Each structure stands twice: as structure tokens, then as C-alpha cells.
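Final paragraph of the annual report: two paired records, presented back to back.
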Amino acid sequence: ANSAITTGGTTTLQADEIVIANTITATSQRVILATGSGHSDSISLGASDTASNGTLEISDTELDLITASMIEISAGGYITMAASINPANASTLNLITTSGSISQTAWVITATNFTARNSGGAISLSGSNLITNIAAIASGAVTINNAQNLTITDIADSTGTIAAISSTGSNVSISNSLSCGTITIGTSDIEAIGTI
């Protein structure tokens, strides 16, 4: 997107490679960034656009150019992190994939409201994240680490409402690396086939 985009509705950008060089404004709606129908099934968050490895790369700078109530990042494969992300102009960040995993071993996700949905694998967010409210569902294990107070609650994405944290096929692990931080469970609970 080389020209500014302003819309009153949902904006969807779907491609094998997306370069956001100007503002996208959908103030009361959502912006969806999705992999295309070509070779790119996976997404690397925080990465600069090198367009060399068949992965859709979305940098923090690009995310900061989006003003919306919700940014949704949707992949048909893996969602990984190459650098920290902090969408400056969106209150909700959603990650959705149907296969592979949503994974992070380092870096930081900063978000007021955050959801992760994986119908085909695990969610593993083990960085020192700065998330305020979270909801997640996966067919595999769910591992969440946070470095500030965290509230587990119901949050909507484009597919529906995710009720707190659940794994339909494995374990759930939630930790807070802040020595005096709290984890608050909202109106829903935490569900797992395995251990919690």
C-alpha cells in the first residue's frame, strides 16, 4: 500500500508479499493482513520486507501505520517472530492460523487486547510479553508468558469470541515473569485436555 487508505469498513490485504508504506485507517473497524493463495503460507512478525524466503513479512513499522480497532494477522501456516511488535494505533491484535504453530522464543508482543487462534497446532509465546488482556485457543498446547499484570478474558476476533484460554488437545501453561505480577482470570475459565 503506497497510497494512504481510509475506510469506514474492514480492510483486507491478502498477498504473498505486502509492503505498507503509507497509513491505513479503519478507525472503528479492523484491518486484516493475510497470506496469499500463492507460495506464502507463513508469516514472520517484526521482520523487514526481504521477499526472499516465501514468508509474508510484516514489520513493527508497518503495523504502526495502521489505525484500527483491531489488526488481524491470518496465515495458512506458521506465525513466528523476528523482532518485537507493538501496534501503536490498534487496541486489539489477533493472530490466526490453521496449521503449523504460533510461536515466539524471544522478542516482545505489546498489546492491550491480544488473541491467538490455531486450529491446527500449538501456541507458544514464551517471550517477556507486555499484554494486558488475553484470550487463546489451540488444538495443541498453549504456553503464555507475560512480564506485566495479565487478565485472561473473553475477546472477539473475526471468527467469533475466544472464551479465555483453552487447548482442545493438550496442556495449558501460563506464567508471569514479573516477580510481583498478577494473573487474573475473568468471567471464563482455562480449559485443557491435559494439565493446566
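The closing record of the year follows.
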Amino acid sequence: SDVCSSDLWRRCVELPEACAYAAFGASPEGLVLAGGANASGHLRAVYLVSPSGEVRALCELPMPLAYAAGVVDRGKLHVIGGQTAPNATRAEPQLLTLDLAHADGPWVQRPWPSADRILANASILDGKLWLIGGCSLHEGAQGVPERTYLRDAIALQLSTLASASTVETCDQMLLPHAIAGSADRKSNTSELQSPC
């Protein structure tokens, strides 16, 4: 059968505003969406969407942020990287953490120890937060942002976050090719760079 047929998909929730490219993570309470973008610009809003379709606003991000990676682990939403405005020529070099048990905040901000990035993929494996691929940004011709596609995977030990004000990587590796969430990639692999 056709995967896109209307009888297989249904609208289950209406968000308070249009939102694309949000960081997200699944928790036992539902899906957490942080930031994103719409026609008005980049967003600070954070929502928890329950399995029943109820939408609850949580503490806003400290700044507007789209194209960030997100993951939930042990009741904490981690948001990594992202871009504060459509014309920003660098990604945010940070890890933001919100304890979902204290959804009114505050967010904990820490510097991220590798290349600033957007459109990365985040995952939790064996107690480590992995950030995989994505794109770094730099100023191109006429001052517009240009992307460099990354092929690294960086991990940090989550147990060190409880008391640390900085973040240190514990593992890193190079992927065979660049990977970025929902992004087009030029086929010329000579343009790919990695900080590793």
C-alpha cells in the first residue's frame, strides 16, 4: 500500500504556531519540541506534546534556535548547536539542557567542545551523548551563510554533566561520508571537512 495515503496518516495535534526544523526528543511524557523556524523567523518556544495530543508550553530557549539537534535522556532535554537567525554565519557552539521535571527552567548552558554545527543528528548510546555529522557555517560571498558538511561523530559521557560547567569529549570518529539531517549535500566529497 501507499505509505503516504491519507488513511495511514492523520493529524494528531495542532501546535500553537507553525514550526519546522525544531530540535526534538522523546520522553515518557511525550515528544518535546524546542525552537525551530517559520515564516516569521527562528523560534524560542519549547513544547511537550503528550501521547493524547495535549500541548504544554515549557521554558523557552535562551535564544531563538533552529536546525539544532535534540535528545532526551533521564528526564533531561539536551539541545546541541543550531542557528539563531536565517542569516547567521556561524552555528551556536553550545549544549543546552532543560530538566523536564522543572519545566519552568532554567536552561543550563555549556560550551560544545567541537565544530559548531547545524543539522546534526543526536543519539544516546551506552551512557554517551553522540552528535553525528551536520554542517558548520561560515560567511560566504555577499555575507550569506555557507555550509561545510561534516563527517565526524563526537561523544560525551553524560554522567560528567551533573557537576561540570564545561563539556569534554570522550570519543570521536570519522564517518565514511558526511551526514546531515534533511539537508542537500553536493556530491563533491573533496568539499567535506572534519575537525577530527
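DSSP finds no helices and 16 strands in the chain. This concludes the annual technical report; the extension proposal builds directly on these records.
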